[in-house]
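INPUT
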Amino acid sequence: MSDQTELRKKAAQTRQATALAHPNIAFIKYWGNQDHALRLPINPSLSMNLGALFTQTTVIFDDSLSHDSLTINQQDYTLDDPAYQRVRHHVDIVREWTNISTHARIESSSNFPVGSGIASSAAAFAALSVASSAAAGLTLTEAQLSQLARRGSGSASRSVPTGYCEWTLGNDVDSVAVSIAPPNFWDLQDVVVVVSQEHKAVGSTGGHRLADTSSLQSARVAGADDRLTRCREALLARDLVSMGAIIEEDAVIMHGVMMSSQPPLYYWNAGTMRIIQATQQWRAEGLPVYFTIDAGPNVHLICESAHVQAVVSAAKQLPEVQDVLVSGPGGPARLV
Amino acid sequence: MSDQTELRKKAAQTRQATALAHPNIAFIKYWGNQDHALRLPINPSLSMNLGALFTQTTVIFDDSLSHDSLTINQQDYTLDDPAYQRVRHHVDIVREWTNISTHARIESSSNFPVGSGIASSAAAFAALSVASSAAAGLTLTEAQLSQLARRGSGSASRSVPTGYCEWTLGNDVDSVAVSIAPPNFWDLQDVVVVVSQEHKAVGSTGGHRLADTSSLQSARVAGADDRLTRCREALLARDLVSMGAIIEEDAVIMHGVMMSSQPPLYYWNAGTMRIIQATQQWRAEGLPVYFTIDAGPNVHLICESAHVQAVVSAAKQLPEVQDVLVSGPGGPARLV
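OUTPUT
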């Protein structure tokens, strides 16, 4: 990508950069850490970047600033806001790597609703990692960018490479995501069925810390490798029937862990369950579609592009459905 | 119970008997068998008989019959019906124990809807066991009646003793239920919130055979003893706060196993999930109520009698709710 090289050069000169990253939908879920501070996951995971959805983030290092400033979707964040502190902490890693102390202006905006089971933090920290490292004059490999993104939000590691990505276990340096297939390998579609736009009560970071309190978590982790292997094989064979059964099983197992943790986390609502039931019904009627659900109530219906219209139409008839977003596979996090 | 002795004598003389048994709601669930034919469970369980709900069954041994006849809720069953065969098989055990070959007329009726997560088979096989053994002239101990009932439907073992019952592991003779507290020990109420009256697609007997196909089942079984011990202690201390957390966890763990079995079993529907969410909300507002859910979509809200009216009123406001039944603790299966 020679335009990326050009953009990186320009960023280093101007000390500012804008990057774009897609959220991703996990087919094999990440839930729980071996190391919370480094966000080293307890199990490997597998996902697809969502090309139609993106977060775009600009980072400007500016010697005249007395502190970092953060604007997300036109809203300014104060220094005591947890979101501000999380972002500042992330830019601190970049400052540490480059040995600079300059403050930065950070502006970010997304074209999709945040906090409702679409991995907004994944796109946000992938874009922030690419933009802030470039603005700081760093030339990072994809693996290093994935590592950096992971430090901000675990699943952000998977939004760095292109298309379909696998995030492996490892230490701080090698627990990173790699692409296992480009976006054009298979035109899978994610029909995101929005049943709630409320910001979830317990975010993923807090949830990961609860994972170990469920008596089901060790069984979930013990089976994750096998599910991931079978999911990867089905994906690379473009076998949606096999893959669909695995992603549903994996999602339900994660939510079983969540609902049995102490305190329990109930991300599902009535709409979630109605769509789960409807999905079985649609399949029985011949529509090949499968669900997965992240840490929120919204349901991701996975199908091939030939069936998107039928899935969207069917979903829109369900009473709790507020909105439907559709996305195919997306590219890597990148400078723009 | 001298009237039971009288009734048993009369039954032996007339070769006919009528028995009544209550369904029960499990606080610690039974899901999966060590031995399917003998219905020896994979884990111990704990329940409360539901005094307001009952099944009443009459068994008449009659030498003039050429085959058994079965009527349930005024409906006659044909010889090839699976329900008929299950009942005939059960009476065969009694015939085996008494070495008789006479056929029987069996009539049964219940005052609650069957097949929707209220354990209709538990009450049915407990009543059938008491009636058929008495009509056959047998004098069985409570443990033997519990054993016999268990052979027909696992959870029926818990509908034989009185009040709050624990069903232990063991072999055919000693895997039986015993009462751990009489009905008047604690006036807990089960507010059964009916969100579906459809007969479930996969009955419990089929479901138990699927339990081992879930990767979560061994973790569920491994934790069951501990949950049961804590639940029994909370129950005997009349500590609903502690007990409530355990029964919700245990129910969710069972449904996690069900939803991750192969093929998956989704007993919950949108109404189920709405009530789960509402229960958290009600508690946050100060109403002490906890849910449990059997192998069906309906939700059992457990509270003390002082809060029944508030719980019933709140539940009736939810859109999917079709009916609400209320029951306190019930007595043993018995001749009437």
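end of record. Residues 3-183 of chain B form a domain with the Ribosomal Protein S5; domain 2 fold (CATH 3.30.230.10).
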